[in-house]
Amino acid sequence: MVMGDIVTGCDVLVIGGGPGGYTAAIRASQLGKDVILVEKYDLGGVCVYRGCIPSKTLIHAANFIYDLKNPGMGIKSSVEFDFKKLQQGKFEVVKKLRDGIGYLCKKYGVEVLRGEAYLESSDKARISLQDGTTSTLKFENAIIATGSRPQEFPGFPYDGKLVINSNEALGLSKVPESMIIIGAGYIGIELGTMFAKLGTKVKIIQRSSRILTKFDPEVVEVVSQKMKKLGIEIYLNSRPEGIRKEKDRAVVTISDKEGNKTELAADKILVAVGVRPNSEGLGLENTKVGLDNNGFIKVDEKRRTTDAKIYSVGDVAGPPFLAHKAFREGKVAAEAIAGLPSAFDNRAIPETVFSDPEIACVGMDEESARASGFEISTGRFPFRASGGALTLDRTEGFVKVVANKKNGEILGVHIVGENASYLISEASLAIEMAAVLEDLAGTIHPHPTLPEALAEAAEAALGKAIHI
Ligand code: FAD
Q: Which of 220, 294, 342, 446 could form a disulfide with 335, with the two C-beta atoms 3.0–4.6 Å apart?
């Protein structure tokens, strides 16, 4: 183990304690490896501190507040909320998860060091510990799981006050009156919707002709309509060109495709234009680890880098930037190091947007299926025809199934609607198991529930839908 400046060793050094890193560390330890995990801040990484968990806690609260204000079904209500207390509640959730990860590391025998790791070679790392001491650690294998950070937008440097990133937006002590969001990817849309529901006047600037460009346009349309209802203004085909400060507000000049300029003012500018990999300052130049053109670490299906001793998982190893992809990769890398025949051979990775209503997709959409050479059949079931959705008074959206016309194999499922983030798991399993439409259609789903819509969409694709 590590003591002062003495060179000591371990089987597996994991750098970074986010979803990819701590999962890899625990799995490697379960498989009998002597594991040291080095984390420079706190266990849990972006997901627990600045990403999934704080955002979903606040989104849940904002949805709850909005629903209380708009209960429908003849219910009357009034609602007040204390944003500071809400933020405290969020931090309690974060703390529980951080402590839980610490407990799990201890339980499975992972030694956790607080400090920063720097690779001196393919089998040695210098660890600058939080107590000011430095140690050198020899390892058999390393797993780099250093994650990513918010990307800057040229001309809009973060100052933590007026121009903020998602982390700072999630930590605000009061709800801003107005906010301009640069970027309409999932983070911009989720946080924009959340703040709008808490009372912020939100304007979103998007360079391309639509929001959430990665998702099926039909699915996204449902969310766009709801955002309009929430009073969110979306400026498509627009580019932020400059910012000036006026008292405590920012005035942003945007320019459209024709070069027409408009000025928008707000209390906060949230930049949400993607992420940069944390691959610098790690000493990778002292190893054979290769990077792609965008600075992400190149990995194979075992998550091994171009340096045979070093593996990499999570955001730093490339898109999609999702905690569940990092979890899976962490297990694969640990198992590969332990000699198991593991590989990241998943057929599809589900992606979710916690918008209103939620979006969740897995596998190919119609366009990508056709581009891959499939002749396809599709089935669509609207939630307005679902008994389960009607009982919940949540009838927006639909389920769309895309299948191979030749043999019925399910290629993709796209959901927009209440609890889409939960519904997608059945579709992920279906794709992972190479299920065909008949499998989904013939599975008995409890009534009246939202998941019935998956079976109904499969029936629709088979031309034997009952309820539409
Ligand atoms: P990270 O979580 O980034 O962890 C990397 C860790 O490495 C950090 O703790 C860092 O301190 C440490 N580190 C870096 N360099 C060193 C070093 N040299 N030495 C020691 N330690 C180091 N994903 C989802 O799946 N669902 C969601 O709903 C979701 N919502 C999100 C919302 C927001 C606002 C954001 C920003 C992200 C969201 N994500 C979501 C993405 C998710 O958070 C990331 O994909 C995930 O955290 C990546 O995990 P990771 O292990 O690769 O890296």
A: 342
Q: Which residues lie across from 415 on neighbouring strands?
A: 360, 399
- How many Å apart are CA 428 and CA 423, to the nearest integer? 9
Going by alpha carbons, the residue nearest to atom 12 of ligand 1 is 16
Distance, in Å, from the CA atom of 224 to the CA atom of 218, rounded to the nearest integer, reads: 10
Do 103 and 211 belong together in one domain?
Answer: no
Q: How many domains, in total, are found in the chain?
A: 3
Instruction: Return the ligand 1 atom nearest residue 56 CA.
Output: 28
The verdict on 36 and 131 lying in the same domain is: yes
The CATH number covering residue 295 comes to 3.50.50.60
**Token pair 């789903």 is at which residue?**
445
CB of 412 closer than 8 Å to CB of 431: yes
Q: Which residues are CB-contacts of 364 (< 8 A; sequence separation ≥ 6)? A: 372, 374, 402, 411, 412
pLDDT in tens, 326-360: 999 999 999 999 999 999 999 999 999 999 999 99
Give the pLDDT score at 177.
Answer: 98
Mean pLDDT, rounded, for 378-402: 97
